[in-house]
Amino acid sequence: MFVKNNKKSSRLRRALRIRRHLYRLNAIRLVIHKTSRHMYAQIVSPDSLKIIAVASTLEKVISTKVKYTGNKIAAGVVGEFIAKRAVKKGVSKISFDRSGFKYHGRVLELANAARKFGLIF
């Protein structure tokens, strides 16, 4: 399936490995995705059929709080919003699905902000 040995195929390979493990755990997941301009986060039910909470830098509320939507500060704001929305819906214990992205930079900042505002993982 992944023949090329480049950044994208490596990330997708890591994502598959992570998701396979999380499906076996049957846990509620915090799924993130990042592009060069935006950060996206979703809380997904164990069966992957229901999205419990969503936050991204595309939202007016978040994009007005930050100057640029593709940096660590914006990732922290997304982490804060996703955590507050999840706790409001009664979800506090989750598993972190980083979608194959390395746990560094914006991904780390989002995770730390989510933990700070009430999510446990």
Question: What is the typical, i.e. mean, pLDDT?
Answer: 93
The global form is globular
Q: Helix tally?
A: 4
Using only C-alpha atoms, the radius of gyration works out to 14 Å
Number of individual domains: 1
End-to-end separation in angstroms reads 31 Å
Report the sheet-strand fraction.
15-25%
Structural class: alpha+beta
User: How would you sum up the major sheet?
Assistant: 4 strands, mixed
Q: Which blocks of ≥5 consecutive residues have pLDDT under 50? A: none
**H-E order:** HEEEHHEH
Please outline what is shown here.
This protein is an alpha+beta fold and 121 residues long. The chain contains four helices and four strands. The radius of gyration is 14 Å and the shape is globular.
Describe this structure in words.
By secondary structure, this protein is α+β, with helices and mostly antiparallel strands. The protein has one domain (7-116): Nucleotidyltransferase, domain 5 (2-Layer Sandwich). The chain is 42% helix and 17% strand. The chain is built from four helices and four strands; from the N terminus they run H-E-E-E-H-H-E-H. The longest helix is centred in the first third of the chain and has 19 residues, at 7-25.
Pick out its properties:
Nucleotidyltransferase, domain 5; alpha+beta; 121 residues; 4 helices; 42% helix; 5S rRNA binding; single chain; 4 strands; globular; rRNA-binding
